[in-house]
Write a structure and sequence with these properties.
Helices cover 43% and strands 23% of the residues. It folds into two domains: 184 residues, Jelly Rolls (Sandwich); 108 residues, Arc Repressor Mutant, subunit A (Orthogonal Bundle), CATH 1.10.10.60. The longest helix is centred in the middle third of the chain and has 23 residues. It has 333 residues and is an alpha+beta fold. It contains twelve helices and ten strands. The radius of gyration is 21 Å and the shape is globular. It holds the Pfam family HTH_18. This is Helix-turn-helix transcriptional regulator. Keywords: Transcription, Transcription regulation.
Length: 333
């Protein structure tokens, strides 16, 4: 758990660490506030974190009744990328009228403005979402790879604004995958200084939004059949990348190392992890660098060598391009 000791005492009468299901690990952030609704038959833990162009929210909801309403109203009119981390489907009404089923392990984009209603069953529930302005999305959609979606999504947002809310990606659904979950966990477990944490969360939120938009594009290739042996092998590749971020890793090198075809490696890895081999290697290299910078005992000049760069100058250029802030911000601010 990421709660400070005094905060944990405040929540102790609601549930203990042992009560929290495994999928909630690390989900209760130290900046949480607790809201008791009505007769206290439902308890909502609200977490809000600054993330530059984004705001990150995560709500834990504990319902003691068989079925109960909550009113998730946005702080201001905005777009929300919603991830259902729950094991239950939830019936919701956007702007109080439009019926939407929030299915488990699904990712959806909403424009929210007026009061919304969610009807959730008895138990503990978890909802994670990021909010952002229209311009943030439109700038992303102007990238060459996404331009074909710009007109359609812009028109859907305009219609949702007139209706004071709506689902933007309907009828296309996007399912939660390993890459989405990795980004969620990165945001949850961020432990940098406040200035660095904002840059870090912003990058992760941006990657999450990019991945969502990419999943709305028509698939280029059919999925390949992956056996249990294939999945285990590809997991070994992922672990090998993590343990060798200090080395120059290419698809050719990895395919030779594991005696598998380069084409199968690229397709299978992307299908299993939601991201390419090269993208994952770069992402994990930057993740490792951020962690090393947060370690005050780690010499600065050692970090480039440990993450695959020949000197601090070249490392700093790549790091700043990725996180939109200098390595020194992670170390000293």
């Amino acid at each position: 758990m990421l709660l400070l000791s005094p905060s944990f005492e405040f929540f102790k009468d609601i549930f203990s660490v042992a009560d929290v299901p495994g999928r909630f690990a690390g989900a209760v952030i130290k900046h949480s506030t607790m809201v008791l609704h009505g007769d206290a038959r439902k308890t909502v833990f609200q977490q809000k974190m600054a993330a530059g162009l984004f705001e990150v929210f995560e709500h834990q909801v504990i319902c003691e009744a068989q079925e109960i309403e909550v009113l998730p109203t946005p702080l201001k009119p905005s777009l929300h990328l919603h991830i259902s981390l729950d094991n239950n489907n939830v019936d919701a009404f956007v702007n109080g009228t439009e019926s939407v089923e929030l299915k488990k392990e699904e990712v959806n984009l909403f424009y929210l403005e007026a009061i919304n209603v969610a009807i959730i069953p008895k138990g503990k529930h978890c909802f994670f979402h990021i909010s952002f302005k229209n311009d943030t999305l439109f700038r992303m959609l102007k990238q060459p790879m996404f331009k074909r979606l710009l007109y359609t999504i812009r028109e859907k947002i305009r219609a949702a604004e007139k209706s004071k809310g709506g689902m933007i990606n309907e009828p296309r659904q996007v399912m939660l995958d390993a890459y989405f979950m990795m980004l969620v966990q990165d945001i949850r477990h961020c432990r940098f200084n406040e200035a660095a944490a904002i840059c870090y969360r912003e990058k992760k939120a941006m990657l999450m939004l990019e991945h969502f938009i990419r999943r709305l594009l028509p698939p280029r290739e059919k999925k390949i059949e992956l056996t249990t042996h294939d999945i285990i092998m590809l997991d070994y590749v992922k672990e090998y990348i993590k343990w060798n971020v200090h080395r120059s890793l290419t698809v050719k090198h990895l395919s030779q190392q594991f005696n598998i075809g380069a084409n199968f490696l690229e397709k299978g890895f992307h299908q299993l992890n939601g991201v390419s081999v090269n993208h994952f290697a770069h992402l994990y290299r930057m993740e490792s660098a951020a962690g090393l910078l947060a370690d005050q005992e780690m010499p600065l000049n050692s970090i480039p060598l440990l993450t695959g760069y020949s000197d601090f100058k070249s490392f700093a250029v790549v790091f700043k391009k990725y996180f939109n802030c200098s390595p020194l911000l992670f170390r000293y601010t």
